[in-house]
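Hey forum,

I'm writing up a methods section and want to include a predicted complex as supplementary material. The small molecule is zinc ion. I've pasted the protein sequence and the SMILES. Can someone with a working setup run it? I'll credit the forum in the acknowledgements.
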Amino acid sequence: MDEITSSRSVYVDAHAHLDEYPDTWLGAVLQQLEDDRIATITTAMAPSAYERALRIEERSRWVIATLGVHPWNAHHFVTSLDEIEPSLAESPMFGEIGLDFRNVHDHTLYDAQERVLEFFLCAARDEDKIINLHTSGAELEALELLERYDTRRAIVHWYSGPLEPLRRMVARGYLFTFGCELLSSALIQQIACEIPPTQVLTETDNPGGPQWVFGEPAMPDVVKPVLQALAIIQKRDESDMREQVRQNLLTCIDGDTRLTPLSTMLHGRYV
Ligand SMILES: [Zn+2]
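Reply by user p_vandermeer:
Happy to help. Structure tokens for the complex are below, copy them as they are.
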């Protein structure tokens, strides 16, 4: 297989949680990444999830693990961020981080969410790293923090908020992931229409995302119908859309040598 042909056949899963699969599933999950050539960013909800993700990364050339503290967990870590600090340097990007004012109803937890997000945004600025961002119900607040910390590169995960902050995020050049809710939600489809082709990515949020949308977890190849739906919405041929998504992530990587393993996956150098 020549490089052009092979590189066009790479899929992108820009936001997953492989550590959340039970051990009994993992062998089949990793085999599918290999068979279907799915370059996968596995984000972490907490440092312990990152540790498990690192062990999974060792088992697959299609996985890159990233450190984060999910906003749902922020209050558990806000007073011990100094313990996370030594692990920051080794993580090639940061995620899953962000704010969630929609699913977290206790307003007393919002301050912890913001402080943890600021901790990671500060590190991302200092180390010039990509972030993988959750914004549910706090889209404007998250955007204002990204502006304050001058965040250069962000992958905005499963955006489902209002259009005004979305347009400001688009103007800042951020990328936006679409997952299985694209198959069923008019709002998500409308958002996908708003975003230029050069700023879209595919994701699964496996296994919890499909669990939330379909009522059961999915295997990594759920990224294929997501890509098909994105192609239809963006009025592109499916193979062109897959190539565009691959190029979009490569452009975001921007030669970042800490992400060379991800670039290698995306260049389709594995045969
Ligand atoms: Zn997630």
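Some notes you might quote in the supplement: Confidence is low (pLDDT under 50) at residues 1-8. The chain has one domain: 3-266.
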